[in-house]
Amino acid sequence: MNLKEYARVQHTRSASLGKLFSWYLINALLFDSWLLPFYTIKRIVLRFFGAKIGDGVIIKPRVNIKYPWKLTIGNQTWIGEGVWIDNLALVTIGADCCISQGVYLCTGNHDWSDPRFALITREIVIENQAWIGAFSTICPGVTISEGSVLAAGSVVTKDTKAWTISAGNPAEFVKDRILQQHEECHFSPRQCTSHGDQQEKPFSLL
What is the pLDDT of residues 58-99, one digit of tens each? Predict the structure, then answer.
């Protein structure tokens, strides 16, 4: 391949140079650092730069976000320390999700068959109530379906099924995710069991 002829296709920054420079500075000082511990201010700043951020979103220190205007996060979602949201394309994260520390959301790839090493971008969708285990990688074009769980260090190259647990590189189905039923269960019978039912030992995620 000839990297001098590198082809940047399907990638638009969707922002002026001034906006890009401002965000790179803010990202370095307030997000990809330990300097700002206040979640409310982080939510306000992200919304100012065009992100769609729900109520109660928690963003821990050292979170690196490429383009906030290509980011949507639902209510009460947690973004852990050291998460890298490399959103050359849109990244949509639902409500009540947990993105654990060190997770990499990768929307960019390259065409290995193209001598120009052309850039390819694909959106990532993480649906409601998903948990991405620490240091996992989500590859371009993947949808993490509702209630899915990924064990730590997983590499996800294809869509997951709802309410399942996956692990490995590449990540593969391990078993269904069954939630214990407490005073009230707001999920379907497939997702909840009563305390009296036989429970499997939880699959280790950390």
Answer: 999 999 999 999 999 999 999 999 999 999 999 999 999 999
Residues marked active site are found at 110
Which amino acid is residue 14, in one-letter code?
A: S
**Domains defined along the chain, listed by start:** 16-193 (2.160.10.10)
Give per-residue pLDDT as tens, 133-148.
999 999 999 999 999 9
Whether omega for the bond prior to residue 140 falls within 30 degrees of 0, making it cis, is no
Full-model pTM: 0.86
Q: Rounded CA gap, 200 and 206, in Å?
A: 17
Q: 138, 87 in Cβ contact below 8 A?
A: no
According to DSSP, residue 52 is labeled E
163-168: which pairs have CB atoms within 8 A and are 24 or more residues apart?
163/190, 163/191, 165/203, 167/203
